[in-house]
Design goal:
The complex is a heterodimer.
Chain A lengths: L16 H10 L1 H14 L3 H15 L5 H18 L2 E4 L1 H13 L2 E5 L5 H12 L6 E5 L6 H9 L2 E4 L7 H16 L5 E2 L18 H11 L7 E9 L5 H8 L9 H6 L1 H4 L5 E6 L3 E2 H5 L6 H4 L11 H21 L1 E2 L1 H10 L4 E3 H17 L3 E2 L7 H11 L4 E4 L2 E4 L9 H38 L5 H14 L11 H14 L3 E3 L4 E3 L4 H28 L3 E3 H18 L10 H14 L2 E6 L2 E6 L1 H15 L15 E5 L10 H6 L8 E5 L7 H17 L4 H12 L4 E5 L29 E7 L2 H5 L13 E7 L13 E5 L8
Parallel strand pairs in A: 1-7, 2-5, 2-6, 3-4, 3-5, 9-11
Antiparallel strand pairs in A: 6-7, 6-8, 10-13, 12-13, 14-15, 16-18, 17-18, 19-20, 20-21, 21-22, 22-23, 23-24
Chain B lengths: L1 H8 L8 H15 L21 E3 L5 E3 L10 E2 L2 H9 L25 H10 L2 E3 L2 H6 L6 H9 L8 E4 L3 H14 L2 E5 L19 E5 L6 E5 L4 E5 L4 H10 L2 E2 L12 H7 L6 H4 L2 H4 E8 L2 E3 L15 H4 L8 E8 L1 E2 L3 E9 L2 H14 L6 E6 L16 H14 L9 E9 L1 H17 L3 E2 L2 H13 L3 H7 L2 E11 L3 H18 L7 E9 L3 E11 L6 H18 L18 H20 L12
Parallel strand pairs in B: 5-7, 6-7
Antiparallel strand pairs in B: 1-2, 2-3, 4-5, 8-9, 9-13, 10-14, 11-12, 11-13, 15-17, 15-18, 16-17, 16-20, 19-21, 20-21
The chains are: A alpha/beta, B alpha+beta.
Chain lengths: ~800, ~600
């Protein structure tokens, strides 16, 4: 057995866990709160003291070397089974060793898996460093024996929420601070508060951080070291669990039997773990010149004190800084790049192309400061292949093409298919997500470039700022330095030759168009997903709702759209994105969050949400490349039209049936996922309004409406030589003589008509300003003369809703 | 004289008779102190008397010269090793001060002839001699001493005047107003806040008003136990002269050999026996001050009055910005019947502080002084055998340590020295109480001699810096006051900050950074820090030193300590005044200055 003599804090006076507990109970801080509560509740202090003791017993750790050894032993076995390698930066461990001796240390690891804290404790044990005490969620205690074992290995447990309970807060805070002050052991907790289900760093929680910072503010310690630790997994143990959870299949409660079941996992391979122990950051250095000392000098230090605003701001800044350091040091595996490329090229991608793209992305990531672990001398093909092998549950190589494993039961219903596909996409996205925080600044600049009406710097910046605000909960931005982020994004894009900047303008280069479109495609799921969610809130949601109502509601909404095929944004199903979008709206002031006894309720200001949506819509449809002269590109889907329209025909039936009797063909616009019901309703309203002016024409117009209602988004109706066009109005219909014969002498017959809906898709629908038509009817030569490839002149008839026609 | 020579022969007269000491020093000193050349007794470029200093003798052993102090003539065999180990200093690397003042370097005296004529008419003695002027151009901050040794002040007084009574001062202030001159009052010259430094940009003639000739006790009122004294009297003379009548003031700041009563008032001084006698603000009954607006004083000499804010509090701590204090009525007490020293050793500083707090709580004003030293600077590998400069002090402790303190870690040992005064019975009773409390905190009584030696050191400690300066070691002490609950945190953090700053500023040798608790109050304590480092390899040591000192003060303030307990603000700590007393507070002081001295005659630029 290993001889374990850890390096400890120089000022440590050794003491047992129980001594700490009694010190906490006797501390002025806890005693003060006990007396206060006793006075307020009219109870004897002894009863409350008793309560405090219970809280402490529930919470406290009982670190024992025996348990630690036991853990170390079993963990080493388990880890050897599960993982190929664990890589640690040695110099980081050495720095940590110095830090632990010098000042109290707070370890701040990233949180992706339960393995995080087991691994970290195991690591410190292996390196002969003082074992940390860990703030763990109280739900672990539910695990019978394991909870107790964890406790003995140094975990202490905190309730997930205890905002209102002053006694709990006092005891907990004092417990943490006592351990910190005495340098008893490094304190470990997760800034993110919970495991990130998406592998994207979560926005930080401030409670525990402000507790561990307080002893320094009060100068009870000279300094405190904050150590950001980045733990990245080549394959996350809980990957499928997370995907299910995001899709709303509830999280299994932590239980011992669950853990036993997890043994099945042991036979699987989870690749390499990378642990990067960052440079310890001195809190003193961070605080120098920022903290006004007065509030702490004028009140006895044991009185509970609400932190002043600048302290709160400082805590938040530190939290973000630590997370950004975590992100900076997070090791990215080749598979992360593969996943990012693959997700942009669904459903299948040629293997060779994938390799090529992955290599290209590797270069880009490195330019942006990403920390890629690419095994030496490993050729790209091998790296991609080994990634595919490790993640064979997500994607596989079929006939030289890489595809997602989303098939499952082939014969499943549509809903089942959508679910399975979403599962695969979300699992794959978990890996791509690891890149996002590295890419977010340049990517938002790229998107802003496409959004902005011109290339002027201010306009691009204002779009960037908007995006940054909207995504403030989705990605990690240091608060308040929007301009700096923008400049950094521009700098990185310039560095990879994607853009050029002049004094006033930022414009994309020809060479960099690939990069810019790759970046915007990378973040498109978020842009689109947020739009879907905002749209849901602005249209579908009633005024006030709770989070419990919101999540299933928006999930159903997205699910239906996916089933219909009117969106491809599977990631909008992720509850993480839904919550982030909601909280972004709260921050932007479009949704009011109110605390009720039963929990939080939200009130939507639908107008404000629509306004935010407009900001997107001005641009989001335009995400395909465009400039000031050309309209964006779209794909046109062609479907036959039903001859009969039962009054109750619903969208659902339409997708399932496949009759094609109709003489006419109907072409539907499937603008890359942006077509949706908003347009539909908008059209109806406009048309209706116009129809009212045309009472005599009502009949024809009603016909038109009825016909169109079957497929509201149609832009072209095609029926060469058939029944003729579908008129919007009785006026200005051409007669035979109005249609000239073809140059070859043959008669011109009706071929197709362009519907007014196109105007909406092209966003040239502002009345009175844009071009406008009721319908455009194209007549072509009945003989189809001029079979060559040259252009021929044809005849077009423009019919407006009310007034005369023109050629 | 016979008595005196006997005392001089015997280094440790036992039992030490304090009264005898005063009488014999009086005999010697009264012969030597004649007008106006007291400065000839004192070093021109260092602390204290010319004949008293630490030197390394031919054997390379440290020795304290002169016969004024009990340490005089003693050899300190381990001191050399200690200084070498602590600072990495070596006797081979020596820097020497200029032997004497180079008169040519001194800025010329520029005095308006009309003023000189007026001044001559008043018959007040004055001097424009370079040495006289330089002597009054500085206090005892490190940078001032450094300038004396190696450079020259940019601005010094143009003329020194020696008024002998209140009326002289009135005349001088009137003349200064008439001719628009700048007056800087000068008492004992022991300032450690750059308060005596002449503002460089001062274009007017600077008059140094030396109060040293106003040194008489005007009267003693035995019924009311008060004495009216001229403000220029030096602490030890005051005690000595009062002792002749069987009285004392009990005000004993560490600088009492040199500092003056007027200086105490102007800086809000504190003495080490303040637990019984009180600080200067508790001792003063009446103050007469000459300002450009006229004379400010109260109409009666009463223990307390309710007449609005106490105007004494505008005067005390005004640091020479408002006027010259000329006469002070001060409380006196009969010389105590019995005096006893004591000492207690604690296993560590924490226990010591806890004990002091408890003693302060329970016994309050029943003992004269308690003072806690952190004996060995922790982390500097000081073994007890090389222990410290205070060899005699330590030798005693060492014996004790061997016989009794085997359980104590000598590296973090700490000792409290005690002084009891009063009638014999009470003293013994209080002594017992203190030792009982100390026992509760793990302290062990370490004997009377050790306590007494500890107090003696207070007076010679200031001489050490001059020795250090010869060997590339610069150092300084500074003080603060702090609530009890923050004492330990403050001490630890400030020491740590000093060590860290030294490292950052490129100081190559680990600095000495230690502290002691010198005063106890109900609500807090006064803490002294000692800080010194070897500056070899640093091109601008004074600048580095100042940066570190500033950082240390920042740290003190951040830890809830005060800007100063008794040294005052001067020009050294002005930058923190606003933070210390708020904008409005500063405005209040400014408006007083504005009213009292609108033309800034007292233009030493201290405080505000």
């Amino acid at each position: 057995m290993k001889c374990y003599t850890p390096v400890i804090y120089k000022g440590l006076s050794p003491c047992k866990p129980n001594a700490i507990k009694s010190a906490v109970l006797q501390s002025e801080q806890v005693q003060y709160v006990i007396k206060q509560l006793a006075k307020e509740m009219g109870e004897s202090p002894d009863i409350i003291q008793e309560e405090a003791t219970e809280i402490l017993d529930e919470m406290g750790h009982r670190m024992q070397l025996g348990a630690v050894r036991f853990f170390a032993f079993t963990l080493s076995k388990i880890f050897k089974q599960l993982f190929q390698r664990v890589c640690v930066n040695e110099e980081g461990m050495q720095r940590l060793q110095h830090a632990i001796q010098e000042h109290p240390v707070v370890l701040l690891p990233s949180h992706r898996s339960y393995v995080d804290f087991l691994m970290l404790s195991y690591l410190l044990y292996t390196y002969d460093l003082a074992l940390p005490v860990i703030a763990a969620g109280i739900d672990f205690l539910g695990m019978k024996i394991v909870g107790e074992l964890l406790r003995r290995a140094g975990a202490f447990f905190m309730r997930r929420s205890f905002g209102g309970n002053r006694l709990y807060w006092a005891v907990f805070a004092e417990y943490v601070k006592t351990m910190l002050r005495s340098g008893y052991a490094p304190i470990e907790f997760f800034l993110e508060g919970t495991r990130s289900r998406t592998a994207k760093t979560l926005t930080p929680k401030f409670g525990l951080l402000s507790i561990v910072m307080e002893p320094f503010f009060k100068r009870e310690v000279f300094d405190t070291y904050l150590v950001p630790i980045s733990i990245s997994y080549e394959r996350i143990l809980e990957e499928s669990l997370y995907a299910y959870e995001l899709l709303g299949v509830p999280k299994p409660k932590e239980s011992t039997s669950g853990l036993l079941k997890a043994r099945r996992i042991l036979s699987d391979n989870f690749g390499t773990i990378h642990i990067y122990v960052g440079q310890p950051v001195s809190l003193r250095t961070l605080a120098s010149g920022r903290i006004n000392r007065c509030p702490y000098n004028l009140v006895p230090r044991h009185l509970p004190q609400k932190p002043s605003e600048d302290i709160q701001e400082f805590v938040s800044d530190v939290a973000y800084k630590m997370e950004l350091l975590q992100i900076e040091n997070m090791v990215l595996s080749p598979w992360v790049l593969v996943a990012a490329v693959l997700l942009q090229n669904l459903p299948a991608m040629e293997f060779e192309l994938l390799i090529e793209k992955t290599l290209w992305l590797k270069g880009l990531t490195q330019t942006f400061g990403g920390f890629i672990e690419w095994p030496d001398n490993l050729c790209a093909k091998k790296a991609v292949l080994s990634g595919l092998t490790l993640h064979s549950n997500i994607a596989s190589l079929v006939d030289g093409h890489v595809v997602l494993n989303d098939k499952g039961m082939e014969d499943g219903a549509v809903g089942e298919m959508v679910f399975r596909h979403a599962l695969a996409v979300l699992m794959c996205a978990t890996y791509r997500n690891q890149l996002l925080n590295v890419f977010v600044r340049p990517a938002l600049v790229a998107i802003a470039l496409q959004m902005a009406p011109s290339f002027r710097k201010e306009e691009v910046y204002s779009c960037f700022n908007f995006l940054r605000d909207v995504f403030s909960d989705e990605f990690i931005f240091f608060p308040g330095i929007s301009l700096k982020d923008f400049e950094e994004g521009c700098f990185l894009l310039t560095k990879c030759d994607a853009i050029q900047t002049s004094q006033q303008e930022i414009y994309p280069t020809d060479k960099g168009s690939g990069t810019v479109s790759f970046l915007s495609a990378m973040f498109r799921p978020f842009v689109e997903g947020y739009q879907l969610i905002f749209r849901y809130l602005s249209k579908e949601m009633k005024e006030a709702f709770t989070e419990k109502q919101f999540i299933p509601g928006v999930r159903n909404f997205v699910f239906q759209l996916l089933e219909k095929g009117s969106t491809q944004c599977y990631e909008a199903l992720s509850s993480d994105m839904q919550k982030n979008a909601l909280s972004a709206l709260v921050q932007l002031g479009a949704v009011k969050k109110k605390k009720m006894p039963s929990g939080f309720t939200y009130n939507v200001n639908q107008e404000a949400v629509s306004k935010i949506l407009d900001m997107f819509d001005d641009s989001a449809d335009a995400i395909p490349e465009h400039n000031e002269f050309l309209f964006p590109e779209y794909e046109i889907l062609i479907e036959p039209e039903e001859p009969e329209f039962p009054a109750d025909s619903t969208d659902d039936e339409q997708g399932a049936e496949d009759t094609s009797k109709g003489a006419k063909e109907q072409e539907e616009l499937g603008a890359a996922g942006t077509a949706d019901e908003a347009f539909q309703s908008l059209d109806e309203e406009t048309l209706e309004a116009m129809a009212k002016h045309e009472t005599e024409e009502e009949k024809i117009f009603q016909m038109f409406k009825k016909q169109v209602a079957a497929e509201p988004e149609q832009i072209i109706r095609y029926c060469r030589g058939g029944e003729g066009p579908l008129w919007v109005s009785g006026e200005n219909r051409p007669e035979e003589k109005d249609i000239p014969n073809c140059v070859c002498g043959a008669k011109r017959i009706f071929e197709f008509q362009i519907m007014p809906q196109l105007l909406n898709h092209l966003q040239v629908d502002s009345l009175g300003e844009s071009i406008d038509w009721g319908t455009l009817v194209v007549y072509t030569c009945a003989d189809s003369c001029g079979g060559g490839s040259e252009y021929l002149e044809e005849f077009i008839w423009k019919q407006d809703y009310s007034m005369g026609c023109t050629l | 004289l016979e008595q005196a020579s006997r005392w001089e022969c015997d280094c440790f007269p036992k039992p030490y008779n304090r009264k005898a000491f005063w009488i014999c020093s009086m005999l010697i000193l009264s012969l030597m102190f004649f007008f106006p050349l007291r400065q000839e007794l004192l070093k021109w470029n260092g602390w204290g008397y010319n004949d008293s200093k630490f030197i390394f003798n031919k054997k390379g052993q440290a020795e304290f010269t002169g016969k004024r102090y009990r340490l005089g003539g003693m050899v300190l065999p381990t001191f050399k090793e200690w200084i070498e180990k602590t600072f990495g200093a070596s006797l081979e690397h020596k820097t020497t001060s200029r032997a004497s003042l180079n008169v040519n370097d001194v800025p010329p005296s520029i005095v308006n002839e009309e003023f000189l004529q007026d001044l001559r008419a008043t018959k007040i003695s004055y001097s424009q001699d370079a040495e006289d002027r330089v002597f009054r151009a500085h206090g005892h901050c490190l940078h001032e001493i450094f300038v004396l040794r190696e450079g020259m002040f940019k601005r010094i007084p143009d003329i020194v005047v020696w008024p002998v009574c209140h009326e002289d001062v009135v005349k001088i202030v009137e003349l200064a107003c008439k001719h628009n001159l700048c007056i800087i009052p000068f008492g004992g010259g022991t300032s450690v806040s750059s308060a005596l430094e002449c503002p460089e940009e001062e274009k007017r003639t600077i008059v140094s008003l030396d109060t040293s000739q106003m040194n008489r006790i005007l009267w003693i009122d035995e019924k009311n136990l008060t004495a009216c004294v001229e403000a220029g009297i030096v602490g030890q003379d005051l005690e000595k002269q009062l002792a002749e009548s069987g009285f004392c003031t009990g005000h004993e700041p560490d600088s009492m050999e040199f500092s003056s009563l007027g200086g105490w008032v102007a800086t809000r001084a504190s003495g080490m026996k303040k637990n019984i006698y009180g600080n200067i603000e508790d001792l003063v009954i009446h103050i007469k001050m000459v300002t450009p607006r006229g004379i400010v004083e109260k109409n009666c000499q009463v223990p307390r009055m309710s007449t609005g804010p106490d105007i004494h509090h505008f005067i005390m701590g005004s640091e020479g910005t408002l006027g010259v204090v000329t006469e002070v009525t001060i409380k006196i007490r009969p010389v105590p019947e019995y005096q006893k020293y004591g000492s207690v050793v604690f296993p560590n500083f924490e226990r010591g502080v806890a004990c002091l707090r408890e003693v302060a709580k329970i016994l309050r004003a029943l003992f004269a002084s308690i003072c806690l030293f952190l004996l060995f600077a922790k982390g500097h590998a000081l073994k007890p055998q090389v222990a410290s400069i205070f060899t005699s002090f330590l030798d005693g402790l060492k014996k004790f340590y061997i016989t009794k303190f085997k359980g104590f870690d000598p590296n973090i040992l700490c000792v409290a020295t005690l002084l009891f005064e009063g009638d014999r019975e009470k003293v013994l009773q209080h002594e017992k109480q203190v030792y009982d409390i100390a026992t509760k905190f793990g302290g062990l009584a370490a004997g009377e001699d050790n306590g007494q030696r500890g107090y003696m050191l207070t007076f010679v400690i200031a001489y050490l810096r001059d020795l250090g300066l010869d060997y590339y070691v610069i150092g300084e002490s500074f003080e603060t006051s702090v609530p009890w609950d923050r004492v330990l945190d403050l001490c630890r953090n400030v020491k740590e900050r000093i060590v860290r700053e030294c490292k950052e500023k490129g100081v190559q040798f680990a600095p000495l950074s230690t502290c002691r608790v010198t005063q106890t109050y109900d609500a807090g304590a006064c803490v002294y820090f000692y800080f010194a480092f070897n500056y070899r390899g640093i091109s601008d040591p004074i600048h580095v030193y100042e940066q570190i000192e500033r950082a240390a003060r920042e740290e003190i303030l951040a830890n809830g300590g005060s800007l100063s307990h008794h040294h005052g603000v001067g020009k050294l700590r002005k930058r923190w005044m606003k933070e210390s007393i708020s904008d409005v507070g500063l405005g209040m002081l400014r408006s007083v200055k504005e009213y009292v001295d609108p033309n800034n005659i007292f233009g030493n630029k201290n405080l505000l």
